[in-house]
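re: ur question from yesterday

yeah so i grabbed the chain u mentioned. its 496 aa long if i counted rite. heres the sequnce exactly as i have it in my notes:
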Amino acid sequence: MDDQPQFADTLEDQEDNKSSDVVLAALAEAQRAFRPWQDNCDRIDKKWSLSRNIANASDWSDAEFDIFWASTEILKPAIYSRPPVPVVATRFSIRDPFTDQISDMLERTLMTTLDLSDIDDVMRHLRDDLVMAARGVPWVTYDEDAERACVEHLDRTDFLHEPARKWAEVGWVARCGWMTRKQMRDRFQSHSGQAYMQATLQMRRDKDRDGMTDGSEKAAVWEVWHRIDRRVYWVSEGVDVLLDESEPYLDLSRFFPCTKPVYGSLKRRTLIPIPDYGRFEKHLDQINELTSRIYALLDQVRIKGLIPGGGDVAEAVESALAQNDSDTIYISVPGAAFSASGGNFVQYLPLDMIATTISGLIQSRSQLIQDYYQLSGISDIMRGATDAQETLGAQQLKSQYGSIRVRDKVDALTDCARDICQILGEVIASNYSGKKIMEMSMTHLPTDTDIKKQIRDIESKAKAALEEIEEHAREMQAQVRVQGALQPPAQMGAEP
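ran it thru and got these structure tokens back, copy pasting raw so excuse formatting
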């Protein structure tokens, strides 16, 4: 990373209004690198959401076996179901009342901050992104005016980072914020003048999506944190200069205000996610195809018979096969056609072949479903389900076995929650006032005045105790002198 040209190397020789070309070019390169993954995720989202172009409700037909949706609903609670609870303690176990009290205050403040950030909703979005797209990203912000830290979930289209082989090699990360022209003026006019007027405005509605919009035009403003430069840059498409740049407004040990994204499978030697859906997409397509064929054949399972009458036999048979309006259909044919029927007045069309075909299709679909369960890990989760009537050992074995396939995802979310708490803890310790921490933790930490008063009280009590001891010593000395004066001289000189 260090031998690559950095943003600052290109910007340092420019005038006050520095060009944004190098930053925008880096963002564009990252967007190109992740574009195939983004397109694939769009397709998966449509598939999961049943997004279809239907003119009206009468055109809807449920000819698919939506096992993809059902399996994700089983997988989600197996990965995450309860909000995280922060625990603050020293690295090593030491018994120090002061550090214990500070740890307790920070832990309580973190609990309050996470609750105000609706951490459960953030974690559920991260979980859903992990299941569907194999990547979820949280971002920590700090409002200096309100003195409040907050955790946000970023949409996958609003986060970029430098393409790299591993997270440790990532030199910059960026998040996209959507701002109106007025918001841009209030935020950037003092830094870059009227440059914000060049920003490209658009309706905040993604192409081919059902995203909601408030009807206002906004510009995409990227906030780029560059670890090597130790700088933060703000740029927007269409603006040829930096909207703003500054030193990091948060002093964090890992520099980035986001954790390592929650990753699922990754393309080898890259940070490009591979959604699990691609592993079993063919199986799902085959299951849906067999389901459609089963439904089509079931529509043909009706009692269709030929009765004596007029007309042509061929036309009658064709009419019988075509009519599906009722469960029982009778078509009249010339009576001579029944001369060899042994006197039977009704001849039914055979259904044995259709029934056999339907049974074969259902059996084939069942095997495909089992294969899909094996690939997706749902079978392991279902085997891990326990029964209250089972022994404790059997329940423990099932629980352990059922969690194997999802353990990596559970650990990834756990590590992410831990890193979120670490970033929040640093923000709180560096930016919150003592009064704010005590209010949020509902605890009291002695102030300088309280400490001085305690010292005065201790000194006063110590002085009083010392005077009491000295007075007692003087009394003892007086008693010894009196006793010595009262003893007879002979007795005083007697042998012991």
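noticed a couple things. The two ends are 94 Å apart (CA to CA). also The first strand starts at residue 135 and ends at 143.
anyway ttyl
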